[in-house]
UniProtKB/TrEMBL annotation:
InterPro entries: LeuE-type
Pfam families: LysE
Protein name stated in the entry: Amino acid transporter
Bilayer topology annotation: Multi-pass membrane protein
Keyword vocabulary terms for this entry: Cell membrane, Membrane, Transmembrane, Transmembrane helix
Superkingdom of the source species: Bacteria
One term under GO cellular component: plasma membrane
Transmembrane segments: 12-32, 44-67, 73-94, 115-134, 154-174, 186-207
């Protein structure tokens, strides 16, 4: 039976997750780009929601405590994340500065559509090699959910998954309305510039935590 305790746990998961994922991250930018292109948007949303639920569930089940007890694992994962974020950011800035307008529009308008496996493969790399994703889902949200009593922790996970679903559906719907704006190369260049700077800032932030 659904009761007040279950509702409280569900709302806790929903609000905590929603407050953390509403930010311009690599995953959000990728989904935004795919939604503007109209290319496998539903598959991208399904991946994001599913991966969020699995990672948060792993954190609730004890992954956060494992990472805390094995600082060497967290350390080398952090360096891998720094390299990923640095490369991703530099690639985005290079595309912003040097890509020809025709190539920018070709990418935005999906002149050469990719298969759903190619799209999800790239999204999986962006998701699973980004340390910020683990910090939000496994460590922060997972550790909060782990404090829920008994089976209530899994209603917390369900609430978090619902928040992820709401956010990515709203993001994809908003992106589709922005298609006229992205008919111009300058809009894609601005998006790439924002992405590149954001990735470099995240790389610096992760690096600072490693050398501190």
């Amino acid at each position: 039976m659904w009761n007040a305790e279950i509702t409280s746990s569900w709302l806790a998961g929903f609000t905590v997750c929603l407050s953390l994922i509403i930010s311009i991250g690599a995953q959000n930018v990728y989904v935004l780009r795919q939604a503007v292109r109209g290319e496998h948007t539903r598959a991208c949303v399904a991946w994001c929601v599913g991966s969020d639920a699995l990672l948060i569930g792993a954190g609730v089940a004890g992954m956060a405590q494992l990472l805390s007890s094995r600082p060497d694992v967290a350390y080398w994962c952090g360096w891998g994340g720094v390299l990923f974020l640095l490369g991703y950011g530099l690639f985005a800035l290079h595309r912003m500065a040097f890509a020809q307008n025709a190539l920018v529009l070709a990418e935005g308008d999906a002149v050469a559509p990719r298969s759903v496996l190619a799209v999800l493969g790239a999204l999986a790399v962006i998701t699973l090699l980004n340390p910020h994703v683990y910090l939000d889902t496994v460590v922060l949200i997972g550790s909060i959910g782990a404090r829920q009593a008994g089976e209530l922790k899994w209603f917390f996970v369900v609430g978090a998954a619902c928040a992820s679903l709401v956010w990515f559906c709203l993001l994809s719907a908003a992106a589709q309305r922005l298609r006229p704006l992205f008919a111009k190369p300058v809009a894609w260049r601005v998006l790439d510039g924002i992405t590149g700077v954001m990735m470099l800032v995240l790389a610096w932030w992760v690096w600072q935590g490693l050398v501190a």
